[in-house]
Structure formats: C-alpha cells, structure tokens
Amino acid sequence: MAKPVSIEVWNPNGKYRVVSTKPMPGTRWINLLVDQDCRVEICTQKKTILSVEDIIALIGDKCDGVIGQLTEDWGETLFAALSRAGGKAFSNMAVGYNNVDVNAANKYGVAVGNTPGVLTETTAELAASLSLSAARRIVEADEFMRAGLYDGWLPNLFVGNLLKGQTVGVIGAGRIGSAYARIMVEGFKMNLIYFDLYQSTRLEKFVTAYGEFLKANGEQPVTWKRASSMDEVLREADLISLHPVLDKTTYHLVNKERLAMMKKEAILINCSRGPVVDEVALVEHLKHNPMFRVGLDVFEDEPYMKPGLAEMKNAIVVPHIASASKWTREGMATLAALNVLGKIKGYPVWGDPNHIEPFLNENAPPPAASPSIVNSKALGLPVSKL
Ligand SMILES: NC(=O)c1ccc[n+]([C@@H]2O[C@H](COP(=O)([O-])OP(=O)(O)OC[C@H]3O[C@@H](n4cnc5c(N)ncnc54)[C@H](O)[C@@H]3O)[C@@H](O)[C@H]2O)c1
Ligand SMILES: O=C(O)[C@H](O)CO
After folding, report:
1. ipTM score for this prediction
2. What EC number(s) would the UniProt record show (predicted)?
3. How far apart are the first and last CA of the chain?
4. How would you write the chain as a 3-class SS string?
5. Annotated catalytic residue: which of 182, 258, 285, 320?
6. Which whole-number Å values give the CA distances from 137 to 153, 292, 306, in the listed order?
7. Is 4 a residue whose pLDDT tops 80?
C-alpha cells in the first residue's frame, strides 16, 4: 500500500492525529479520543496484516499516536517513523506485546501500551472450551453427524476423557492461567498442578478454600500443587494449558522432548502464543500418539499451520479467537485508545494493570491516566496516585 487508499476519518479538524491500523469493535474508543480533540484516522484497507511500509504510509508526516495490532512488526523502523512524525504514543490492541521491540520504542521515547485484564476471563473461557471439546471429541462428533454417518447409539461411539478428579496442569499461572485454573477446578472438580516463576498465592488460597467446602459437604476435596519444574507438570497432568508470555525463555517451551514426557492420552491446550510450542514436533507427536489431543488457538507461523496439522483428527484448531467476546474486544479498543490518549495528554500511568475496571465503566469518565504502559519505568513516566 504506497499511500493509504482507504481511511475513515473522525473529527477531521482535531488538534491531535491518532491513527488506528485496523477498525476496532465499538465506538466508545473513538468518542473518547474525539472528545479530547483528536482527529482519528482508521485504516479500512482490506489487507489483513499490514506491512511496515503500509504503516509508515499511514503515519505520514505528522502523527501523535498509533493504535496497532499484534500482527504488526513494531520495531526500529516504525518507531523511527513515528518519532519523525512527532509521535510519542503507541499501543498494541493486545495484552501480549512480543511483536513490539520495546528497546527500540525506548530509544525514541515512545510509550508502548497494552491491554491487560479486560481479556482474562474471555481467554480463559476459550481455553476451557477447547479443553472440553478435546476431552469429549466434540468436533469429530459434529463432523460425523454432518457427514450422515450416525446410524444409532453405540457403547464405544466417541468415548472421551472424564475431567472430574483428573489433574489439570497450568504453565504460566498469571491472570489468564489462574482464571483458567479456577474454571477447571471449580467447574469440573479437577486437581491443580501449576508451574510459574512466581507463586500464585491467591490461586492456591482459592483451591484450598474450595477443597474445604467440598470436604465439609462430604465430597472429595480438590487439591493444588506448585510444581518445582515445568517437566513435573507435564508428567503428572492429564490436561495441560499454556498461558505464559512469549519471550526468549518460553520460545519452544514445549518441544519434542517435553511432548514425550506427557501422558499418552493427555490433552494440551495453547491459547498463549504459537511459538511457545514447537509445532513441527507437535504434528509428529499427534501422528504417533492418536489418543493424545490438542486444542490450539495460536500457531507458530500465523496465519499458517505447520504441514500436517490440519489433517490431524486429534487436533482442534481455531483462528486466534480466545479474546473474541464483544465486551472484551470493545474493552481492548478502549484501553488501547486511552493508552495513546494518556501519553498525548501527558497523563500519568495507572498504578495497577490488574485492576483496570475504572477505564471500562461506560457510565463514568475514565481516569485521567494511561491504563497500561509497559515501558513506563524506562521512560520515567509518572505513576497515577488515583
Ligand atoms: N490467544 C489469545 O487471543 C490470547 C489472549 C490473551 C492473552 N494471550 C497471551 O497470553 C499471555 C498471558 O497473558 P496474561 O494476561 O495471563 O499475562 P500475565 O503476565 O498475567 O501472565 C503470564 C505469566 O507467565 C509467567 N511466565 C513467564 N515466563 C514463564 C516461564 N518460562 N514458565 C512459566 N511461566 C512463565 C509469568 O510469571 C506470568 O505469571 C499474553 O502474553 C499473550 O501472549 C493470548
Ligand atoms: O495478546 C492478546 O491480547 C491476544 O493474543 C489477542 O487478544
């Protein structure tokens, strides 16, 4: 795209120019920017993934801030272009920001925003959906019905895994990993084993309390265990869900050797980032272990799947939709816009990215702060006292 050919403009005479590389759900995010004297330009180009050149064309000669997407390569070239245009504000419309070279942003004094918290339960619910779909072979059974193959009930038709009393493993018990763990423990009475670099005390207290409730009511209590290593989780769990950030320490965290550690009939779920799993090794493992199942929302080379994965009946694959609920996506757009607006207006940074609810209350003006700036310390940005 040499020059942006399709742009939707709001508040053309606004003092500040904010570019959004994609249309985003809802209109609150636009109104919040327009109300603060921003001209909002939304790229409506049909191209799904914009190139660096496309985005440079969008930035142009004067741009105060950009709202971008996790599919875009935000590094030296784009932050230099934004800086040349006078811009100091960028936000990913995502909580993950592995597509952003934060050191390059620091070099140009550009704030990097992300959207934590608003997608926690939505993502955890999708991971739970994939867990159940894999355990009970829902997709295979649906295809069977639609193919007209059903000719009556049979004792062994699509027999799957019972989750109750089994062990659920979580790798990365942060916001989403903890929310997923609670769903699977409370909803299906599973026992938890988790591995994280940090202790998840709140999650441990929840499982303990729920176990005490069950015991007091004559039921088998649930248990929790903090594993000393990721391998311990892989060996012990019947169902494992991956929720770490993607960085150089988690790239191919699940590889051929670790897949071999897992139970032959285990279920692996990945709603974090595709490169956390060696997908080539995963396809081989699925081929040689027909009772092993996966549920994948993310892929190593999105939008492509590694050869062979699409043919695997023991794999459920969906196109990176874990945060795709209306409320969450509109909230992500709002947080991303407020990150950019906050930097433009010189607001401080919100002090607690785990409690961003005040920014999502549609009946009240948002706090005069940027919800979540990942390089606020590096840029020496003030923290809100609100
Ligand atoms: N598929 C989707 O649509 C979707 C939606 C939301 C988030 N995500 C991904 O999920 C990630 C987690 O989001 P979150 O809000 O829970 O973040 P978070 O920061 O709250 O949790 C991430 C956790 O990973 C842990 N961790 C980091 N390195 C680890 C390692 N080597 N081993 C084990 N644990 C490790 C951290 O300690 C932290 O507790 C995001 O970074 C994003 O990439 C994907
Ligand atoms: O990191 C994220 O937020 C997801 O991948 C998209 O919602």
Report:
1. 0.99
2. 1.1.1.29
3. 43
4. CCCCCCEEEECCCCCEEEEECCCCCCCHHHHHHHCCCEEEEEECCCCCCCCHHHHHHHHCCCCCEEEECCCCCECHHHHHHHHHCCCCEEEECCCCCCCECHHHHHHCCCEEECCCCCCHHHHHHHHHHHHHHHHCCHHHHHHHHHCCCCCCCCCCCCCCCCCCCCEEEEECCCHHHHHHHHHHHHHHCCEEEEECCCCCHHHHHHHHHHHHHHHHCCCCCCCEEECCCHHHHHHHCCEEEECCCCCCCCCCCECHHHHHHCCCCCEEEECCCHHHECHHHHHHHHHHCCCCEEEECCCCECCECCCCHHHCCCEEECCCCCCCCHHHHHHHHHHHHHHHHHHHHCCCECCCCCCCHHHHCCCCCCCCCECCECCHHHHCCCECCC
5. 320
6. 16, 11, 22
7. no
- Atom of ligand 1 at shortest distance to CA of 173? 39
Torsions phi, psi for 188 (to 5 deg): -130, 10
Q: How many other CB atoms are found less than 10 A from the CB of residue 1?
A: 16
- Confirm whether 273 is a catalytic residue: yes
pLDDT in the model for residue 353: 86
For ligand 2, mutation pick of 91, 323, 329 (most atoms within 8 Å of CB): 323
pLDDT digits (tens, 9 = 90+) for 238-276: 999 999 999 999 999 999 999 999 999 999 999 999 999
Q: Are strands 89-92 and 191-195 parallel, antiparallel or unpaired?
A: unpaired
Q: Which two tokens stand for residue 218?
A: 């004559």
Averaged pLDDT score across all residues of the chain: 97
Q: If you search the block for the tokens 């493992």, which residue do you land on?
A: 285
The answer to whether the Cα torsion of 204, 207, 210, 214 is positive or negative is: negative
- Please tell me the distance between residue 217's alpha carbon and the centre of ligand 2 in angstroms: 39
